[in-house]
């Protein structure tokens, strides 16, 4: 979020394109953030000219070290199309030149039709340098199916849900419902969206925060009937693998029955599109979290049997996202801040990674082009070794791995794999005509989801005659093992 700077701050903007010019105009108009000293650009047609009455210097790599600058000077990288490799080079170039504050404007997947605003500029982060090259998705056109509609996001205060909300500001939706059970996280995203709107980001959209529990079926039916949502993006879930291994019933109660309640209510209330955000941990799951998402996928896909002809309920699966709360990037950041060690589970551990903005833009794209009952897989590229990620982050903060910050191998935690898979043996990838969006064809008939839910229900909710298994952890794992054979049953699992 923006903070006011001293009005004598000197700012260098890297990139004299549409984004850089927009940022410069805004700085000048507000008159409280300082003044733009120069644009830095590599375009020979711009170098030596003046844009917005500001000199354009370049090429960037030649002039950065020649700048006459003060310790408080700031650099803003305003090149939305820059690849992670280009950003990495620019970042270290600026750091070597002595810039202490380096900000970045949103990447191309977050810029809508050449619309860039100063309020969107933020401190550069390791995840900006770790992602892959962005794809220009044409988000405004992709979101046209939501124009004038009412859209509900579950888990709107989380990493994925909040980014979906930011991008949906530019969709022209009539109402944006921010649903979540965490009062503070919903307050934060509600406040952020309203501030973005005040600064000219997006369109006129009515933002409505909604606090509630998906686990309460009567409430979910009531609220969906009242809100008349046209589309639902279901991002709410308990996601932390070791935490869910320690609380398996909570995982099933929230991720499975919460999804069931939402789907039932959406079918009844006439929701036209529902998109479930899923995970690679749902593929041959070994942990309770993965099993819960596997079952959630089946609930949404089986809903096509009861959906009306104009209702499309689908699943979008992808791997890890960089920088989400509780993920590896914030953990490594905090470990580096205290001098290490940085803990890695195993030297060979790898994961598929995508930035949150790219994942969300592809989810929104899929929601408009996908068909009901289908499972879609985002193209995650090649897996990344966690050890390599740790080393890159250590260098980002100016240290040398092994010499300044030690990497320590701590072993796999409960429910973790060395490598994740994106597809199961019974699934086949079918490319679509949309970049980085694939469809998965699955062999076999419908999964017996109702049978599974029937056996899980009395463990999660008090049921007459079955009091002995209520909240019984061993019982829930035994049921899950029957329907998800790959699940690993830990030794010494307590009953309660």
Could you provide a short overview of the structure?
By secondary structure, the chain is an alpha/beta fold. It is built from 16 helices and 22 strands. The strands form 5 sheets. Strands 10-9-8-11-12-13-18-22-21 form a 9-stranded mixed β-sheet, with helices on both faces. Strands 3-4-2-1-5-6-7 form a 7-stranded mixed β-sheet, sandwiched between helices.
Question: Could you outline the blueprint of secondary structure elements for this entry?
Answer:
Blueprint: E1 10-14, H1 18-30, E2 35-40, E3 50-51, E4 54-57, H2 60-63, E5 74-77, H3 84-96, E6 101-104, E7 122-123, H4 126-130, H5 139-142, E8 150-154, H6 159-168, E9 175-180, H7 183-198, E10 206-211, H8 217-227, E11 231-234, H9 241-246, H10 248-269, E12 273-279, H11 288-302, E13 312-318, E14 320-322, H12 328-337, E15 342-344, E16 350-351, E17 353-355, H13 356-369, E18 375-378, E19 384-385, H14 386-396, E20 407-409, E21 427-431, E22 437-442, H15 449-460, H16 473-483
Parallel strand pairs: 1-2, 1-5, 2-4, 5-6, 8-9, 8-11, 9-10, 11-12, 12-13, 13-18, 14-17, 15-20
Antiparallel strand pairs: 3-4, 6-7, 16-19, 18-22, 21-22
Helix pairs in contact: 6-13, 8-10, 10-11, 10-15, 15-16
